[in-house]
Every structure is written in C-alpha cells, then in structure tokens.
Write a structure and sequence with these properties.
Elements lengths: L5 E6 L2 E8 L6 E6 L4 E5 L4 E6 L6 E4 L5 E4 L6 E6 L6 E3 L6 E3 L3 H7 L8 E6 L10 H16 L4 E5 L5 H11 E2 L4 E4 L12 H12 L6 E6 L6 E6 L3 E3 L8 E3 L6 E4 L5 E3 L12 E2 L7 E5 L17 E6 L10 H9 L3 E6 L12 H8 L3 E2 L5 H14 L3 H5 L16
Parallel strand pairs: 8-11, 8-12, 12-14, 14-15, 22-23, 23-24, 24-25
Antiparallel strand pairs: 1-2, 1-5, 2-3, 3-4, 6-7, 7-11, 9-10, 13-21, 15-16, 16-19, 17-18, 19-20
Helix pairs in contact: 2-3, 3-7
C-alpha cells in the first residue's frame, strides 16, 4: 500500500475507511476519513485492506522538472495547471503539525479528484512556496511559464497560489501578459485536511472559468461562506479582505465581474469581458523592482521618505483624496527632481484620488506627484514596476487604464 490508496483499517474492533496519507513513523498509519478528518492509527494489531489504488483510469507522465500530462479524453479542452504552492497545494506536516506547501501540480489533481474529466491537464511547478515568500522574480518566472503553456496550445491556465499575496501576483500577470485565453488564479483559505476546506470547490470552479469563453486574468474564490458559487474578480481590482473566511476576496469599487455556479459549473459575467481569442499572445515580463510602497500615517516623520531616495518609483497611500502632511511635500518634490516617479493612491477602500480639491493636493501636484485615480495601492505598486520597464511615458500610463485597474468613474454600487 502507498499514500493515496483508499484503505480499510480494522483495529481493536473499530473500522476506519479512507485515503492513506504520508506518515513520519513506521509505527502509525494516518488515514483521511470521508468526513474530512484525519486519524492516526497504531499499526500494532491493525489489519489493512487496500480497496482502491487508482480512482480514475488515466494516462499520466511526469519528468524531473515537475511537469506532467494527464489525459482523459481527446476532445476535452487542455488546461495548464501551474503550481506555486500555497494552502490549496498544501498538506499537513505530521512532524510539526503545521501546514506546508509540498504538493506538485499532479499531486493537487490527485488530491482533488473532482477535477477529473473536466479537462485534460498539463501540470508544472513554478515554485513551491507559501505566498508570503512570493517575489517579483517569481512573478516574472510565472508569467513566462503561462506564456509558454498558452503558446504550446493550452485552452486555459489555472495558477494555484497562496491567498495572502495573490492580488499582487494577479496584477503582475495582468500587466505582463496579453492573452487570448483565460488565466485564472485560485487558492484555498483552509487546507485540505479540514472538513471546511474550500480547495475542491475553488479548484473546480477555476477550471470551469479557465475553459469558458473569455480571455481575462481573474481570481476565482468562494463568493460566500456557503458552497453555492465562486466569484470571479478581475486581477487588478481584487483584494483579500479577511484573514480566514472562505469568502475573503472582494472586488473593490464594483461587484465581482462574474461567478461560477458550484452545482452546474455554469460561468456567467455581469459586465463585458474580452472574448476568447480577441487578443494576440504577448509577453512583457520585465519589472523594475526598485519601487517602494509607503503608507502615510498622522505624525509620520518626512524622514520616512528616505527609503525612496534614489529609487525608480514610489507609491504613497495617502489619506482621503490623496493627501499627506504638508511637511512631506518639499521632500516629495526633491525625490521627483532626482528622478523618482511618485504616484499617489488612497487608503480609502472606495473612491478615487483627486488632488485638485484642497491646497495640500494642489501643492502635491505642483511637486510632481502623479495621481492614480482609483487604482488600488497594491496594484499601483505592481503597475509602476511594470511601467518603468515597458512604456515610454510612465506618468501618462499611471493615469490611464491598462488592464482594467483604473475605472473611468467611481460610483455607488450595491
């Protein structure tokens, strides 16, 4: 018997049935029960029967680079399943009791058998990290991997990612890639060993979104705490708003752009989206990482701006319409004169920057600050990295939408 086999274990009059999990000792068995809980069983006097080794009759092949192909039926669409790690691709480390990212892409497919038969899969591993360890260098590597998979004929791409920094990576892919097929990021708030895990539903809905008729870069996560639907968020307008709820993600300034019904797999959109095949495949992965993101707080010493001295760019989270203490303005002006692009965003969740209302704002504009409208601070941070390397007029680009990050108007919505 091997981890992944379905087994029945009888010991001292009690029967356990489920999937055999890895164990760190030879003295115990760890079984994932059908209800979702894991149980450790002493091997002493235990009788084990292997009930099933392969749930599906599939053709599978992998290589040393962490790439694999899994084919169900020739007429199914092909989805590139790219793993970067995170809770959706995690398991329990029974040595420490902690959740660790240690599955490759093919393991995730085995862990979510509900994915079987919905598409054919090409799996590859770009990184195996929790998302707090994500870096711009991995964004670039990921964008290149997505480009390669689409160029090789993938009908859609699903990126498995940790939730904590998913909004940054979604923005990075939105700017670095123009794509004719869907690119969908998904993750899990709760690991697969928990009965309340959202990994199965999120993964299945992401595959459904990746095979639908559009070519957007989206984040697919639970729409509510219940298992009814997943929301689809544009990659440049999404934000993680809760530490642990399954419906932690929200679209800022509007409703989510679409949804996927869990029962039927139906994908629908509330607003116009780019059609499948509408854009040619294009990759511009270069990022200038010499960019800082700084949040202004009352009483903050202007010396905090020293972190941007000599930097290529600085994004400031200002108050309200985009303000800072007046003592900051001269120092900001000096940064601009020295060649640093300074972009203003707002700490407010809704609304947009407008530095033409109050004297402070007008003084900031005179100092050379660039308004970013209603672009989210995190998205502006990534966009500025990208713009500094890929466009001629950085300031003009930060003032206009490139990938849906800047809305023409900020209006109330329900």
């Amino acid at each position: 018997m091997n981890p992944g086999d379905r087994v029945r274990v009888d010991r001292t009059g009690t029967t356990y049935e489920g999937v055999l999990l890895p164990s760190t000792t030879a003295e115990e068995l760890v079984v994932k029960l059908d209800g979702g809980y894991n149980v450790g069983i002493d091997r002493s006097d235990a009788s084990v029967d292997v009930l099933e080794r392969d749930t599906y009759d599939i053709e599978s092949g992998g290589d040393a680079d962490g790439r694999s192909e899994i084919t169900f039926e020739a007429d199914l669409p092909t989805v590139a399943l790219i793993s970067t790690g995170g809770t959706i691709a995690s398991t329990v480390d029974y040595r420490t009791g902690a959740v660790t990212a240690q599955f490759d892409a093919e393991d995730v497919l085995r862990a979510v058998p509900e994915l079987a038969g919905r598409a054919n899969y090409r799996g590859r591993v770009v990184a195996n990290i929790l998302s707090e360890n994500m870096t711009p260098a991995v964004w670039t590597e990921l964008a290149e991997a997505v480009h390669e998979e689409i160029e090789a004929g993938a009908d859609g791409v699903v990126v498995m990612h940790g939730t904590d920094t998913m909004q940054y990576t979604a923005a990075a892919l939105s700017f670095t890639l123009e794509t004719p097929v869907p690119v969908v990021l998904t993750g899990s708030q709760r690991s697969a060993d928990r009965p309340s895990s959202d990994n199965v539903m999120n993964a299945v809905c992401a595959v459904e979104a990746a095979t639908a008729d559009h070519s957007e870069t989206l984040v697919c996560m639970h729409e509510s705490e219940s298992d009814e639907a997943c929301a689809l968020h544009r990659g440049t307008r999404v934000r993680k708003n809760h530490t642990s709820r399954r419906d932690a993600f929200g679209t800022v300034g509007a409703e989510p752009i679409g949804r996927v019904e869990w029962d039927t797999g139906e994908v629908s959109f509330r607003r116009p989206v780019a059609e499948r095949g509408a854009d040619d495949l294009r990759l511009r992965p270069a990022l200038d990482t010499d960019v800082e993101l700084l949040k202004f707080v009352p009483g903050a010493d202007p010396a905090r701006l020293d972190l941007a001295e000599g930097a290529s760019g600085l994004v400031i989270e200002g108050t309200g319409l985009g303000h800072v203490n007046t003592e900051w303005i001269d120092r900001i002006g000096a940064l601009v004169e020295d060649g640093t692009t300074v972009v203003m965003t707002s700490q407010c969740i809704e609304g947009r920057v407008c530095d033409r209302v109050y004297d402070t704002g007008r003084d900031l504009l005179d100092a050379g600050v660039v308004e970013a409208g209603d672009t989210l601070p995190e998205t502006a941070y990534v966009k500025l990295m990208w713009a500094l390397e890929n466009v001629e007029s950085v300031e003009e680009t930060m003032r206009r939408p490139v990938a849906g990050e800047l809305q023409e108007r900020s209006v109330p919505w329900t």
